[in-house]
Design brief:
196 residues, mainly alpha, Tetracycline Repressor, domain 2, 9 helices, 77% helix, 0% strand
Length: 196
């Protein structure tokens, strides 16, 4: 189309995602987002209607990129929920340790900033956390524990995952993060054995 700038929406979302991931929602100004994506404000508003929708779309892009990896890890060991949780954390640690992406987790960082998000975006972040918890809970279903214990363990694993992201962003060494994962997996195994 003559006279209109063409651009790759997914590429723009990847670049915006990196800004939100590095800076957080509050500090990701439209000027920073425009500079990162190479799009003027008009193009940003024309495509995404504003910062808030761009943020939610960037979150969805983040979850599409990493969510499939988590899902694969959690479903790769049917009948062995402890191994599924271990595999999940292996993916988490690999992402945290990847020097090609910002430290931490976009969802964890966004959850920590919920008070400055719009109601729609805060709800969206909560939905993404709930979806991750549901994936973990489904992997734990392969045990004989009562549903209440499995619910509690799913929330516990979710909480540790989000904590790992915060700790990694604070510069905690990989060895210490791995110690947290080891203790978490031992706790899950012990809880499932105690009630199995």
């Amino acid at each position: 189309m003559t006279g209109r700038k063409q651009f790759d929406v997914d590429e723009a979302l990847d670049k915006a995602m990196a800004v939100f991931w590095q800076r957080g929602y509050a500090d990701a100004s439209l000027d920073l987002l425009s500079a990162a994506t190479g799009l003027g404000r008009g193009s940003l508003y024309g495509t995404f209607t504003g910062k808030d929708e761009l943020f939610r779309r960037a979150l969805d892009r983040y979850c599409a990129t990493y969510g499939a990896r988590y899902e694969d890890a959690l479903t790769a060991h049917p009948g062995d929920p402890v191994r599924a949780v271990e595999a999940f954390f292996e993916v988490v640690l690999a992402r945290i340790g990847d020097p090609a992406v910002p430290k931490g987790c976009l969802v964890a960082q966004s959850a920590a900033q919920s008070e400055v998000l719009t109601a729609d975006s805060a709800t969206h972040v909560r939905h993404l956390l709930d979806r991750q918890r549901a994936r973990i809970r489904a992997a734990l279903d392969d045990s004989h524990a009562d549903p209440g214990t499995l619910d509690d363990l799913a929330t516990y694993v979710l909480a540790v995952n989000q904590s790992l992201a915060v700790l990694s962003r604070a510069g905690i060494p990989d060895g210490e993060l791995r110690a947290v994962v080891r203790l978490t997996c031992e706790t899950v195994a012990n809880q499932l054995t105690a009630v199995g």
